[in-house]
Every structure is written in structure tokens, then in C-alpha cells.
Amino acid sequence: MKKPRVEDLTLRERIGQTAALRSNILARHEDTDAFFKANPYGNIWTTGKLKFQVINMADESNGEKDFSNDINNRLYNEHLSDILKVPFLGAMDAEKGIGGAFNYFSQTTTNIGIGSTGDVKAAYDIAKCIAREMRLCGVRWDWGPVLDNASPFCAVSLTRGFADNPEDTIKMMTEYIKGVQSEGVAATAKHFPGADRDEYRDSHFSDQILRQNYDEWYERQGCIFQAAIDAGVYSIMIGHISFPAADDTKIGGRYIPATVSKKIITDLLKDKMGFKGVVITDAVGMKAITTMFPDPEDFYAAFYNAGVDVILGPNHEDFIDIVISAIEHGKISEERINDACQRVLDMKEKVGLFDTPKLTVTDEIRENARALTKKTSLYYAPKSITWLSRNNSLVPVKKENIKKVQIVYIGYAKNVLENINAYVVPEFEKRGATVSVCEQILNEDHIKKIAEENDLILYFAHIAPHSPYGMGGFVMEKASQFAHVLTEGAEKSICVSTSSPYIYYDWFPSADNFINLYCFCPEYLKTLVDGIYGECEFTGKCSFDPDPLAPRL
């Protein structure tokens, strides 16, 4: 189809292009076709793992649909494009692959796992695999990569950056963007203007402030986003972080976040830095912004007037009606809506929504995509996995010496433990070992018993963004285990981080053998066991200094 002209769209349709609806809102509506005809959104935040009633869905019987099924998601997005004047754009966070949203597809390593290969081709190849799988699910907008040169004490940032310096970040980021956009998927540089080296708070729950002056910011953070713009990134996500050096406006004694700052979005990002693509907010349900504008019209007007083009996850089901009312009350100009709508249409044209025929996806195509991602992960896993400590001759182990293995998991995420059971345990069993798994070292007698009865002990520790939800770290019974960890059997123990690069420094400084995996995807867990048996060598170099207090730019 031909790209629609802004002037040929109704006001409701133009506003709809400037928001990304949360998919869970659809769970409240039985007739989703009727909902979209009345509320013609142009974009949806695809979260997967979601079931809701669908009526009038093309080629499908009425009833409950599971949107962790990639076929259902793709067909429904195509169906919405048929009933709406402008093709529908599915979008999602895919920082670790899309396996968390779609059951059939892949988990991949994190950005720090990519950065620790030291190979820019890894960034391109892995990003291309992720984008290929996204497209097969009907998703064409990737909210990544993360470019924040963030504080090591900010839990929400753990593992999300490529490196802790601008030079390496720029090299990796540039290839990542190329990889995503080569597959007809829009990449998103986030979260502009970046993060502060000393800010530990999380904008999901509190304010965040970027405290550098302009020159310091540009040297440490701004240059990364400028490089992303120069690399042709299609969209940039604005973080709910205040940047007083660029805009010291306060409301109620608090600096306003960048998401509602015209000086930061329009004057700095669009005009001075020359960004011509789509500016999208971070999710607008975060505490850093929700408490600043109690009136819904004022809330949404603040984003548009700052220069935002797409609002991510409007909090109100009647969002389009609220924005129309704000226009009628003179709080938002229709010209600003038109400009935002035009930018979205232009991005949809870049990814081929107007000239690309519906995707024909066979089981073979799906399987080939997944197989390529698996092959790519297996290739880069040993180049990424990093020895942070290797002070005795335990590794490589010999099959004949390893009859009993004890795995201890310390973490809050059940899916990490599930993957350990699914992919680590069978690898040891294939080599003739009997494996036990526990989540709690109870006392001194328990650790002594583990040491006496096993030939090898593996401690897996996991701290990651939102795991635990809130401030990162181990507390209560999880933390109490470290009174016993390595007090017995240290000479036969290997400690593994499946996430944070700082777990070694913070919790395992006495470990003779410490490995950073950076992720818990199947291929990396399998490769871990290969390396323990000496069947491959880990050559990764951590792209973050494992000491969070080390000086850095």
C-alpha cells in the first residue's frame, strides 16, 4: 500500500499513531476489533505470555488466544493492519532475545555478554538473529540497544550496557543497530540523555538525576547517542531522568524528567544533535513521572510539548479522548500531533510496512531462524564467558574424577533455576555424574556434608534488573548463605554469575574459581559445562571493571 498522508488521517488516527498501547489492556476487551476501530492505535507493546478473548479475528475461531504463540501474535498484528487505515507496528524489549515473550523462540546473551567478546561482529550477528525472530512474530520495533553508561550501583542497569566506556560502547552499538535494522526492524537507542555514574535510584520507583555539566555529559554519555544518530538509528527512547545542566526546571521542588523537557528533547536532541527519527518515552507508568502531573490532560500534554513522538504505555484506556480534549483546551497543538504522526509514518516506511507483503512463515522458516540463533550463540559463548578468578588446577576436570556434583542456586528468578535444571544438569549426567540441586545452604553442617559427599560444587548466583524487584542484592535468607559459602570444599568449587558483573567483587572475592556467564540462555549454560571439562576455552574479557568502585569515565 502507499504510505498514508497525515492530512488524510482523522485526528483520532493521527493521535493513535503517537502511542504504543500495552497489550495487557486488550485482556479487558472481548471484542478487540471493536476496541481498535474506536481507538485506532498504531503501535502495541508486545509482552507475550498473554491470553485474552479475541472476536472477529481473521482465519481464527472466536475464543481465548495465547499470545506467547508467535503465530497467533503475527496473525493478529496482520489482522489489525487489515482493519486499520495504517499498518500496525508491534514493538517490544528484546535485550536478551524474544524467548521470554514467545515460547518457541530463543533466549540470547545480554549486552555485556556481547561486549565481553571484544568482537563487534558478535553485536551485529546476535542483533540480526534477534530481529529475524522478532519479525517472524510480527514485531518490527526493537526497544534496544541500551546505551546508558550507568552506575554500577543502579540495579536496573545491570548487564544492559555493552561496556563501561564510550569507545567500546560506540563500536558495539553501531554494529548492533546495523544488525537489527538489516532485518526490517527499527532499533531504539535508549535511554537518552543517559545515566549518572553515581545515581543508584531507579526511575520505576523514584527520581533519577544526571548531575554532570554539559561537557562532562557529552564526553561520557552524549557522544554515544550522537554516534547512534550518526549510525542511522530509527528511534530514541527518552528516560525519566532529570538533567539539570540542560534543563533545571522544577515542579514541586523536583527537577523535571527529560521526557517532559523541551530543552532536552527538542532543543538538544532534535535540533542540536540532529535527530530526525521517532522519539519515544520510556514507559509512562513509572513513579519518576506519574506523580508530577495529576491531571491526565496535563500529563500527556507535557510529553507532546517537549517533543515526544510516541508515548509508551498510556495509563488511560480513553487516552485518545483525553488527548483530543487537551487539544480542544489549547494544551497541545494539532501541528505537534501532525509532526509526531509524520515521524511514525516515516519510520514505518523505513521498515517496509507499506510495501512488504505479508510474511509467509512455514515451520521450516521458523526452525531455521531458531537454529541460526542457536548456532550463533554457541559460536560466541566461549568468546564471551569470562574467568574472573582461576587460582587452582581444578579446571579442567576429568570425567573419571567427577561422580557427584552439587549445584547451589542463590537468586530470586525461578526461570534461571529452571534453565539450570534443564540444561546444566543433563550435561553433567551425559558425562556420567549424578547431580543434586538445592537453593539454600542451611548451616555449617549442611555445607560440610555437601563438601564431603561431592566431587564438584557449583554455586550459581543471579542478580539482574528487577531480580530482585527493587534494589539489587541478596537479603535475608539469600544473603545469610554467604556465611557458609566456600567455608568447606572451596578447593572443589566453581562460582558462576549468570548476570551481574559485580557478583564476584561483592559476594565471592575468596573464590579460587569464578566464571561470569552474563546470561542464562541454554547455549551458554551448555558451553559452561563444556569448558569445565576442558572441551573448550573461555576467552571472554569482562567489558566492565568487576570492581564497581574502580575509577572510570
Would you mind describing this structure in some detail?
With 553 residues, the protein is α/β, with parallel strands linked by helices. The chain contains 18 helices and 18 strands. Helix 16 links the parallel strand 16 and strand 17 (493-497). Residues 52-62 have low confidence and may be disordered.
Q: How does the overall form come out from the CA principal axes?
A: globular
Which strand-content bin applies to the residues?
5-15%
What does the largest sheet look like?
Answer: 6 strands, mixed
Q: Walk across the major sheet and give the strand order.
A: 13-18-17-16-14-15
Average pLDDT taken over every residue: 93
Rg over alpha carbons:
24 Å
Percent helix: 25-40%
Distance between the termini: 48 Å
SS field, number of helical segments: 18
Segments where pLDDT lies below 50 for 5+ residues? 52-62
List how many beta strands DSSP finds: 18
In brief:
The chain is α/β, with parallel strands linked by helices and about 550 residues long.
What distinguishing features does this structure have?
alpha/beta; 5-stranded parallel β-sheet; 553 residues; 18 helices; 6-stranded mixed β-sheet
